[in-house]
Design a protein that fits this description.
The complex is a heterodimer of chains A (114) and B (115). By secondary structure, chain A is an all-beta fold. In chain A, 0% of the residues lie in helices and 53% in strands. In chain A, strands 2, 5, 6, 10, 11 and 12 form a six-stranded mixed β-sheet that branches. Chain A has a four-stranded antiparallel β-sheet with strand order 3-9-8-7, with no helix packed on it. Chain A is globular, with a radius of gyration of 14 Å. The N and C termini of chain A lie far apart (41 Å). Chain B is mainly β. Chain B has no helices and eleven strands. The chains are: A mainly beta (114), B mainly beta (115). The interface between A and B is medium-sized, with 24 and 28 residues.
Chain lengths: 114, 115
């Protein structure tokens, strides 16, 4: 079985500052990794995904993430955040055998202030 | 292309009642999964349907069930509602089959409140 750990429950940051949201996973087989964002009273929106190939993946809204197999990490970064990035961010993992069963982390609340 | 739609968006039920939630996947997507989101347990996988058959199941009691129709639309049912069933229920669809079909696209959710 796989698991995901998001080390920070809340990350406060000033507008235009860089941010990194941390995600570590555990799995005995190859994984597919995702970051989703959830705005208040909404569903989950896919930010980016790692399926294979280049370990640096770029997503929507200026976000990117780097897959590090040796450290079993998939941290999310943005060089300059905006107020509108305030939301809950979820890291998720699945494997080939359980492709429709996403295992989510507990989420990180990104709070951007002026 | 229209996204995943869920109805109703909000629902209030009483303990002991049953409820049915509906999900229409993105056109061409054949896999539909359901998740429960609560403040205490986070996001948990309920089950997945593909070609009208349940293909994967999470660790939920039998009171939670679902089905999928030939047009890929799906419904989930919760019988004998308990207070702890209050949650946001999210539906996600996936193309399933060929190419990058591992990503799931989520609907806006149905907020169920059990009183």
């Amino acid at each position: 079985a796989q698991s995901v750990t998001q080390l920070d429950s809340q990350v406060p940051v000033f507008e235009e500052a860089p941010v990194e949201l941390r995600c570590n996973y555990s799995s005995s087989v190859s994984v597919y990794l995702f970051w989703y964002v959830q705005y208040p009273n909404q569903g989950l929106q896919l930010l980016l995904k790692y399926l294979s190939g280049s370990t640096l993946v770029k997503g929507i809204n200026g976000f990117e993430a780097e897959f590090n197999k040796s450290q079993t990490s998939f941290h999310l970064r943005k060089p300059s955040v905006h107020i509108s990035d305030t939301a809950e961010y979820f890291c998720a993992v699945t494997t080939t055998g359980t492709a429709s069963k996403l295992t989510f982390g507990t989420g990180t609340r990104l709070q951007v202030t002026l | 292309k229209a996204g995943v739609t869920q109805t109703p968006r909000y629902l209030i039920k009483t303990r002991g009642q049953q409820v049915t939630l509906s999900c229409s996947p993105i056109s061409g997507h054949r896999s539909v999964s359901w998740y429960q989101q609560t403040p205490g347990q986070g996001l948990q996988f309920l089950f997945e349907y593909f070609s009208e058959t349940q293909r994967n199941k999470g660790n939920f009691p039998g009171r939670f069930s679902g089905r999928q129709f030939s047009n890929s639309r799906s419904e989930m049912n919760v019988s004998t509602l308990e207070l702890g069933d209050s949650a946001l229920y999210l539906c996600a669809s996936r193309r399933d089959g060929g190419g990058n079909s591992y990503e799931q696209y989520f609907g806006p959710g149905t907020r169920l409140t059990v009183t």
